[in-house]
Amino acid sequence: MSTIQERLQGFDDGDLPAVLQEAGVSGAGGGGFPAYVKWQALGDVRHLLVNHQESEPNCYVDKWLGRAHADELATLFDALLDEALETVVVGAKHADRDPWLRPLERATDATVYTPDQLPVDPESESGVVFAYTDDTYEYGMETVLLRISTGTVIGKDLPVDYGWIVQNTETLYNIARALAADDPVLRKFVHIDGFRSNGNRLPHRLFDVPVGTPAATLLDAVGVDPGGLAEDRVLAEGGPGWCFKVQRPPDRYGVRKRTNCLLVLDEETVAANTYANGRVDVLDPFDWSLADPDTEPSPVTPDRVHVPTITNDEYSDVVAASTPVVELGDTVAKGELVAEAEPRGDGFCLAHRTPVAGRVADVTPREVEVHRR
């Protein structure tokens, strides 16, 4: 019996969400919503949909995790199936099966559905099921993937209203680490990509970084001068099909727990491809294909971090910023709590810990800056 299964067996109602809240687990892509909120409904759901689509053409984090950490993910799936769920459906692209998904298939002893066999009927299946889809960008959207892979149409409702929890692979990897060893979320996998002012492609890189690593540190790692970025370039957070302009200077913008990619783009193209909600879609204006993409994360060691107290300001009406518990000049150890989860009203919030040891250089309602010791 795995450690995760033993813990789940001993949990009372609310224990699992509390572990995830204290570990600071949020959605590792998209909106970055606190993950524990979804798992509060575990007693009312029967199925988990693993969003393994990773539709952005230059992103490889979930693909790499599914191959390199297949056993850890399989252990989590087995424990959830033994203690709480009936099925775990992995929604992945069929084009990714041979280069990336075979190890996870083997580790989970999964039943496999190809695109022509979808949707899966979860009521007639049990265990782990792979629902392979066609290579379509929109299938990465939660509601679309749920419909395509399982036939579940939720409209404006939530997946939990229909017995489903939906999480992407990196989030589930963080959940597995939290349950197996109480490991908090201290690091993030993030890509750097985009184009120079002369139109040449930047080196496509995949980094393993402490949460709060300044964007300037990563730009410097790919040969972009962060100080000159504002002259003719725009920094955006997200992938080519779904990103948003970063409004803060690169040296003050720390990587969030939801940051999967940072893009360097030209202002004119961004302006021409920005929609009413601020979403930028530059899939078509550029060729995002790569002959030799960076698919193995390389560690980066910044000299400071800007640990956010809220993963996404856009959710500030429902997600509360955590309360800093450190002061200017404090010395902190790696993994030490710097902002505690203290929900106010109907808001949700997470605990946040420093991913580096050092000295607290600044504390604001939105972040805690720590300089590495």
Description:
The chain has 373 residues and is an alpha/beta fold. It folds into three domains: 3-181, NADH-ubiquinone oxidoreductase 51kDa subunit (Rossmann fold); 187-299, Ubiquitin-like (UB roll); 304-372, OB fold (Dihydrolipoamide Acetyltransferase, E2P), CATH 2.40.50. Helix content is 25%, strand content 23%. It has eleven helices and 18 strands. The chain has helices at 3-10, 15-22, 36-39, 61-68, 70-83, 97-108, 142-150, 169-181, 215-221, 229-232, 267-272; strands spanning 47-51, 87-93, 111-113, 127-133, 164-168, 187-194, 205-210, 233-239, 242-245, 261-266, 298-299, 304-308, 323-324, 331-332, 337-340, 352-353, 358-363, 367-372. The protein has a six-stranded mixed sheet. β17 and β18 (367-372) form a beta hairpin. α5 packs across α6. The protein is globular, with a radius of gyration of 20 Å. The two termini are 40 Å apart. The mean pLDDT is 94.
Write the layout of secondary structure elements.
Elements: H1 3-10, H2 15-22, H3 36-39, E1 47-51, H4 61-68, H5 70-83, E2 87-93, H6 97-108, E3 111-113, E4 127-133, H7 142-150, E5 164-168, H8 169-181, E6 187-194, E7 205-210, H9 215-221, H10 229-232, E8 233-239, E9 242-245, E10 261-266, H11 267-272, E11 298-299, E12 304-308, E13 323-324, E14 331-332, E15 337-340, E16 352-353, E17 358-363, E18 367-372
Helix pairs in contact: 1-5, 1-8, 4-6, 5-6, 5-8
